[in-house]
Design brief:
Number of strands: 14
Radius of gyration: 27 Å
Shape: elongated
Order of helices and strands: EEEHEEHEHHHEHEHEEHEHEEHEHH
Helix content: 25-40%
Strand content: 25-35%
Structural class: alpha/beta
Largest sheet: 6 strands, mixed
Number of helices: 12
Bound molecules: adenosine-5'-diphosphate, magnesium ion
Distance between the termini: 37 Å
Length: about 350
């Protein structure tokens, strides 16, 4: 439902995004993972039509977000990193304001607001001031806001940042629930979070997309890359030549030699023909005691770290300058602010 092609965003000479392309299909929960400064918020701001791009295109159901922003935006509910909450309003007032700004009709608004509050379980705090709500509840109000107008796609930018562990679990559960009926894109700098909630992983690093695959496939490729680690008492060259002759051993890499005359090897082996018994008996025949044998498989963490840890020098601090007025379109336009305050009075 979304096609992102060659998306680039420059701030001066700095590439916040370079040449990012991916597709979002209906009905899945996508995880956008990357360290701080990787470009997650920039991407989300662009695909929701809140920020202009320097190059590339974003199609939402075939409609260009830059040429037809209203139609494209209608399909997307967005919870930005800093939710645009008016803390002097109650959730009921605020959602009525948002419903109006999103063009929900007056007949439909009360029902839609009620549904979005039920879905996010904030009905019981509907009439409290937002500023008096906990951060977890404010985040729910932010998600309720994103749900208004029945968008097919919900985009949530780091929705659990700053929440306590219980709130984090509750918000994750809520996101999983939403994923049953909507397409969801969730960003996070925490791998465990993405793994807990998402099916498909997109990893950004320094403005580049470095992985784009189902989480299960990445996990399988991590275990397929397992290596067998051996510690052998004896001479390295001899052990090496013995190991190389064993059937099922594909690749032998010597590692550091211990001062006690223990040499270490890392082996790639044939998954179809487990050579561990042969290794044990052959070394024993040669009177070379095998003191340790261990299978080490890469984890998703290892993959994430190796994909995102290159060239940390390019890491940037927090945004140095705010986007210029032409670049940034607020979620709701300011003029819709005026008449709403009294309207919500009728809601209750
Ligand atoms: P993330 O959300 O992954 O933490 P961002 O998308 O916010 O990352 O930022 C990506 C990069 O772009 C960062 O290096 C950030 O400093 C830079 N950046 C973001 N906004 C601006 C801006 N308005 N001016 C200059 N640099 C910016
Ligand atoms: Mg961000």
């Amino acid at each position: 439902m979304i096609q992102v092609r060659n998306l680039t965003k420059k701030y001066g000479d700095f590439f916040a995004l370079s040449d990012v392309s991916f597709d979002i299909e209906r009905g899945k929960i996508y995880g956008f993972l990357g360290p701080n400064g990787a470009g997650k918020s920039t991407t989300m701001n662009i695909i929701t039509g809140c920020l202009s791009a320097t190059g590339g295109s974003v199609l939402v159901d075939g409609k260009d977000i830059f040429d037809k922003p209203i139609e494209a935006k209608r399909k997307i509910g967005y919870l930005p990193e800093l939710p645009p909450l008016y803390t002097e309003m109650t959730p009921a007032e605020y959602l009525a304001f948002v419903a109006h700004a999103k063009g929900v009709s007056y007949e439909d608004a009360p029902r839609k607001i009620r549904e979005s509050m039920e879905q996010t379980q904030i009905t019981h705090v509907a009439d409290k001031l937002i500023r008096n709500l906990s951060k977890g509840y404010r985040q729910r109000v932010g998600i309720a806001q994103a749900l208004l107008g029945d968008p097919e796609l919900i985009i949530l930018d780091e929705p659990t940042v700053g929440l306590d562990p219980k709130q984090i679990l509750e918000i994750r559960e809520l996101i999983r629930e939403l994923g049953k009926t909507k397409t969801v894109i969730l960003s996070s700098h925490i791998l465990a979070e993405i793994r807990a909630v998402c099916e498909h992983l997109l990893i950004l690093s320094h403005g580049r997309l470095v992985a784009n695959a189902p989480i299960r496939a990445l996990e399988e490729s991590a275990t397929a890359d397992a290596r067998l680690c051996l510690e052998i008492k004896g001479e390295e060259a001899e052990a090496l030549s013995i190991l190389k002759e064993i059937e099922g051993v594909w690749d032998v890499e010597p590692e550091a030699i211990d001062k006690d005359g223990i040499c270490r090897f890392s082996l790639k082996t044939d998954p179809e023909r487990d050579p561990r018994d042969d290794i044990f008996y052959t070394l024993a025949e040669h009177k070379m005691p095998l003191v340790e044998m261990l299978t080490k498989s890469a984890t998703l963490e290892d993959i994430f770290l190796s994909l995102t840890s290159q060239d940390v020098s390019g890491e940037h601090e927090a945004p140095s300058e705010a986007p210029t007025a032409e670049e940034y379109t607020p979620l709701f336009s300011a003029k819709e602010n005026e008449e709403t305050e009294e309207k919500e009075g009728d809601e209750k």
